[in-house]
Task: inverse folding
């Protein structure tokens, strides 16, 4: 359904001393209808940048995004608008989406108004149905965002994302600031909605346990690259970085090295991006690494078997 | 018992608001032994942080406090503010959630770490500086002589977190209160925080961890207390708690964790202004009976206690 090819994003800052930072480099991705894909990785690995490029909020530096075979990147705004409703983003912080001076009901109704072609009664009936779908009662509707708890507000944002009957939802850390019980509620609800509507779901998170619990397929990102992709990644991690993440979840080895402690890779280094932190590095890791197909899995490490 | 470090008995805190008083803490009672890591877990808005602030005597000015907090045999809840200043930072220190907000951006990191030593241990500038360098080195902030003279913005996030722990432990406190140290932090950084906390705990410092992260509490603590709607509903040893939680809320909370299948708790958290009558969990409890409408007793069972009628 959604297909991304060789997506790259480079942020530049500074006028005179221009600094270039590659956030995402060469990501290929394909999502089928009804499938849940989890993208995991530490903060700063380019997960959110990737999400923004998938929903067309950010123009990629190079690479293409296709939706049902139609190329979205480079399309003009007027044509793109037809597709915007089909792919929706649910951000980490629900406060970023809803206007604090509007009632939540009005925020949810806004997409109908923008699209046009709905009578007032239709809008009100649709909004009521959406509130019911996300488990909010009628008394929540006339409230303002500050009168709702974090979990309730996140449900409002999901209701708003569902207005235009999307085919793909991209959840960017949608539950990582919430309590476990609220997180469980939101995730269960998203899965139910997915089943009912046959949505594709992209679940971006740094919580590996949550990713494991919800997803059909997992992509592990490190430094803007996909280092591992497959179905049972967490049961049988092949890339050293995935193994390090798994250790961290179980608080297994307490010897901790953070990327910021070892500093950036030297200029012109074209080898494995995990080279400096990898415990199993050898001379051969200085060669550039390609995603290889290893037993139904894609791994960016020459050692993986 | 002489090895009890902190004893909290009958502490209640309510905060008056426009809609009525918020009963943030109701009849909290627990004790922390020396060298013990004690976790207080619960959902956001259940009054965990307020309880931490009540122990440190850092409550908002309009909060109404009642009860007794004893630290090493001294009743700190009865001290004057001036006397409390000698305890705060010396015997009990706190580590804030966000190091960027907790550090003063205009003061060198070394000076900030040295401040408790200068204030509480009466050290000279030189002594404090030498000790600051040792502390920085201990937490892998190297080279310490250079780093000591830098400002917070020159530190990376993980380093600043370690510098904060160095500041909290500067005057050798006996108890550290850490409020939500892992909120919104990714797995690798979380493990980093766990590692430095364990390093400090192995030196004999007791911890009160206030967190909603069940996995973190499991990795770190000796004993666990569960907070629900302002009340502590269960206190148990870590292994016993994770093997067999007693209170229905504790069971539901553990079932909501991703490893155990993410089963949401039915219903929603009650309002802290109009708290449910009797057991505060009864509207959401699958085992509720008529007696749950009256206040449940705190039942003591071998080494743990639970506030529920089932075990009465």
Result:
């Amino acid at each position: 359904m959604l297909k991304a090819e060789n997506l790259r994003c480079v942020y530049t800052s500074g006028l005179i001393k221009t600094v270039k930072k590659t956030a995402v480099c060469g990501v290929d991705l394909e999502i089928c209808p009804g499938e849940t894909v989890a993208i995991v990785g530490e903060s700063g690995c380019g997960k959110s940048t990737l999400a923004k490029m998938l929903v067309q909020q950010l123009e990629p530096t190079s690479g293409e995004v296709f939706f049902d075979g139609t190329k979205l990147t480079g399309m003009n705004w007027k044509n793109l608008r037809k597709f915007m409703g089909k792919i929706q983003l649910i951000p980490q912080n629900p406060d970023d989406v809803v206007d604090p001076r509007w009632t939540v009901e009005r925020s949810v109704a806004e997409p109908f108004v923008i699209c046009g072609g709905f009578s007032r009664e239709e809008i009100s009936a649709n909004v009521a149905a959406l509130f019911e779908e996300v488990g909010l009662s009628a008394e929540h509707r006339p409230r303002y965002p500050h009168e709702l708890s974090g979990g309730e507000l996140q449900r409002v944002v999901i209701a708003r994302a569902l207005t235009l009957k999307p085919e793909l939802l991209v959840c960017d850390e949608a539950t990582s600031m919430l309590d476990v019980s609220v997180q469980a509620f939101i995730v269960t609800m998203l899965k139910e909605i997915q089943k009912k509507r046959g949505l594709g779901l992209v679940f971006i998170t740094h919580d590996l346990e949550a990713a494991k619990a919800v997803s059909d397929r997992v992509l592990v990102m490190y430094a803007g690259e996909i280092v591992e992709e497959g179905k049972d990644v967490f049961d049988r991690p092949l890339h050293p970085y995935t193994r390090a993440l798994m250790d961290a979840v179980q608080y297994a080895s307490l010897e901790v090295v953070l990327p910021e402690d070892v500093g950036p890779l030297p200029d012109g280094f074209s080898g494995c991006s995990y080279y400096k932190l990898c415990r199993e590095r050898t001379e051969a890791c200085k060669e550039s690494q390609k995603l290889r197909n290893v037993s139904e899995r894609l791994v960016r490490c020459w050692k993986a078997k | 018992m002489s090895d009890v470090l902190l004893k909290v008995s009958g502490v209640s805190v309510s905060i008056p608001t426009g809609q009525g008083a918020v009963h943030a803490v109701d009849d909290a009672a627990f004790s922390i032994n020396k060298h013990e890591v004690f976790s207080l877990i619960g959902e956001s808005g259940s009054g965990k942080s307020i309880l931490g602030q009540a122990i440190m005597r850092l409550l908002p000015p309009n909060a109404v406090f009642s009860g007794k907090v004893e630290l090493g045999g001294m009743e700190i809840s009865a001290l004057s503010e001036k006397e409390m200043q000698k305890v705060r930072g010396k015997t009990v220190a706190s580590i804030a959630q966000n190091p960027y907000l907790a550090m003063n951006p205009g003061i060198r990191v070394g000076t900030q770490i040295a401040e408790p030593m200068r204030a509480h241990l009466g050290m000279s500038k030189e002594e404090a500086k030498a000790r600051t360098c040792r502390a920085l080195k201990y937490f892998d902030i190297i080279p310490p002589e250079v780093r000591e003279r830098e400002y917070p913005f020159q530190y990376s996030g993980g380093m600043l977190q370690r510098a904060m722990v160095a500041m909290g432990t500067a005057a050798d406190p006996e108890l550290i209160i850490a409020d939500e140290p892992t909120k919104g932090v990714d797995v690798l950084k979380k493990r980093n925080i766990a590692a430095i906390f364990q390093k400090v705990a192995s030196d004999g410092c007791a911890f009160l961890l206030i967190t909603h992260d069940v996995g973190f509490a499991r990795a770190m603590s000796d004993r666990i207390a569960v907070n629900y709607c302002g009340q502590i509903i269960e206190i148990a040893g870590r292994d016993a708690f994770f093997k067999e939680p007693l209170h229905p809320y504790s069971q539901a909370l553990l079932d909501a964790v991703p490893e155990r299948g993410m089963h949401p708790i039915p219903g929603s958290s009650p309002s802290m202004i109009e708290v449910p009558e009797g057991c505060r969990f009864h509207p959401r409890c699958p085992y509720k009976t008529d007696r749950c409408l009256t206040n449940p007793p705190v039942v003591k069972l071998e080494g743990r206690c639970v506030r529920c009628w089932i075990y009465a």
Observations:
- Chain B touches chain A at residues 43-45, 140, 156-159, 183-192, 194-195, 198, 212, 214-215, 219, 252-253, 256-259, 261-265, 268-269 (CB under 8 Å).
- The radius of gyration of chain B is 20 Å.
- The longest strand of chain B covers residues 4-17.
